[in-house]
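Worked example

This section walks through a single chain of length 152. The input is the sequence exactly as stored; nothing has been trimmed or padded.
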Amino acid sequence: MTFEILVNVIAGVLSLIGAGLFSEVSKQFVPWIFKRNEPEETYSQKLTRLTENLIKSSSEVDSVLTELSQVASDREKTVRKLEMDLRELENREKELKDKVQALENIPIPVAEHFAKLTAAGERRSALRDYALFGAGVVISTIIAIVLQIFGT
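Given that input, the structure is written out below as tokens.
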């Protein structure tokens, strides 16, 4: 029993050593066996190939530079728009501060009187809106009844 275990361990070690040797030998000889007999490139062919690669790369760089220029231009436009919006908001803030300052100087009785004047107008406006809505409901109901009577 122990002999069989020893034989299996030795077989495993030899298998590992054999696989390593085969791997190294195959790295050396397989490329040599399957090596293709391709003719080497001439200098004019190399120059032609390299020139074509250079032209292709140059056109790709040109397109990238164009795109970068467009992105920079778009960004500049966006920054200008944001600056204009910021100036506009600053002007509006100044106007509102001036209005608040003016309202702070108004005496409280005047403000209360103004609130009473606007509240009455708002109540009248609300009553008018309700009346118009009710009239619309009544008229649409009458039209629906008339259409139903004459439509059938």
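What to look for: The chain has a mean pLDDT of 81.
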